[in-house]
Amino acid sequence: MIHRGIIVLGICLSLITPVFADEFEEVDVPITRIVLFSSGVGYFERSADIFGPSEATLNFKADQINDVLKSMIVMDSADDAMVTVNYATLEPTAYALQSFAIDLSGEPTLSELLSQLRGAEISIDTPEFVEGKILGVEEKVEMVVTGGETVILENHILNLVTDEGIQAIHMDDVQNVEFLDDELNKELNKALDVLLSSRDTTRKPVTVKFEGSGTRPVRMGYLNQTPVWKTSYRLDFSGEESRLQGWAIVENTSDTDWEDVSFSLVSGQPISFVQDLYTPLYASRPVIQPELMENLYPQTYDTGVGLTPEQIAAGWSEQTRGSSAWTVKGGTGVQEFAAPRLNLSLSGSGSVGGDMFTDEGGEDYYFDVAEMQMAGETGAVGELFRFDLAKPVTLERKTSAMLPLVDRTISAEKVGIYNIEVMEDHPLNGAYLTNDTGLKLLGGPITVFDGDMYAGDAMIKHFSENEKRLISYAVDLDVNVVVDGEHEREVTGIKIVKGAMVMTHKTVATETFDFKNNATKDKVLIVEYPRSESWKLVTPTEVEETTDDLYRFRLELGAEATERFEVSVQKIHDQAIGIMNCSTVTLMKYSERGELSPGAKEAILGIIVKRQALGTLKQELNDMVAEQAQITAAKAEVRKDLASVTPDSQLGQRCMTKLSEYMDRLDQLETDIRAKRDEVAIADKSLVDHVNELSVD
To answer: What is the CA radius of gyration of the chain?
Structure first.
């Protein structure tokens, strides 16, 4: 069943010419409508009234065929409409050459060419005339001594089966070769024609055949790559009202004249791509070798061992019992079907371009193509915007033209624009434009006229309806600017967070601009100042507008007057300092700062007390260690004195007594030092834990 509507589309891309080609009358279907997109493609529509079966031949460049195959749409309003589109195939040259009996795909030499034609009957001149069948071409290597040096020569020998027997003929002696088989000659010429046509990048014919009856209108459209159409504007301040004139620059780079064509220009970025649909694709397939049953070897048999029924059953249960399954991918998902039954439900979907699918009942469905009506001068198409030219356009091939887009008054306020990053000493002449033209305007250059004179050039990006936009076009030499600036930084608060002293800093940056207007008329300046998320605007409090990167302020500048304009911004940021990394003297200084809260001051003083107590313990430990070292040295001296006297002498007894005292004291110190070190470690850990857990606002 084929669904019929006012416009029915059915496209069948065919490589085979229909049998009843003579019934079709050749008709001309000219280009009647063109839509150019700013993304670099164009839609070309052809239309005409035809009668009965007709055919129209269109010529395209080879690199345009892919776009035609991807996008072509054909409409025939006949009740019995059937449309086919025929075009010459573009088979890859290598595949085409390999299909002939004579394979020229590898640029074969004459020897290689004759080698692949073994058995063919030929006649050659050597210069003697010889006729026979090719047995083969062999390569012989000879060693020849020339001038005292041995040279290796490679000779190709043609072995030809003649009535007199097999003759060996040096290929170097062959002057002429003729195939005696007419079919081989035809194959050679066809292969040469393929090579020649593969280099032909000129026009390729595409024939559209309309098989309907009666008189009726037909249309067909397609996409092709085109130069990007461009825009340029003129802005005139000379009159009481500002006027904007816009032009579209288009190029006809095709080989066809555009005559009285309905013309539309579309701004936007529709997704467009090129896919190779023209070149035939060949899928690689695996090569399966036929299975050969091998002969059985003589068998030998070992003595058998009996198995119980249970063992046999156990052996079978260990084998995997697999079940076959089919997986079908495509459509809306992946479905699995268990073998042996496989029930498939096929579904299809269509899109503009004439897709067809067959349902489960075998019915064929075609999709109606609804034309998008374009009414009025302009219109929005999704995210695109279209300009419809009021009058048809005529543009000869290989020529360009400027086509009018807009010629309307536009709201404009002349202002100066100052940005220190652009120019430090002077502002720029500019204007605030409000797009009240009712059109979306594509970006492009603007030439500005003021007082019937050229005033400068500006650039504008895509300009939406009712959007307000600045442009600048010249340097305003009547206004001089002097800039000065300063930075102030102060600590506004201190708090303790997890063992760190966090100081809050406030930095205020102030820039002063002195604008001197030397002109005899008042001016309005727009002052641009950098905008950042980390800096907050303090003054002025009134802002004309903001962008992602800028503040814009309005400044009224009187004639021959000087105005000072000041911008202040502030930045609040924190700086963290680890308390354990600060000396006691530094902590004492911080405790005396006025920004410190009473609680934080008390906490710092408590840390100082704990640190001093820890210092006392460490000093006691150091004193013990020093005493231990002194006694150890004194003990060594006593041992030295004792070595020079007898133990029973009075001096010897005194040395022995002193040595005993030193050893007792060293034993006591060793015990005390060990205890003091434990005490220091405990106090140190207690201080670190206390500081790390301390948080006070």
So the answer is: 49
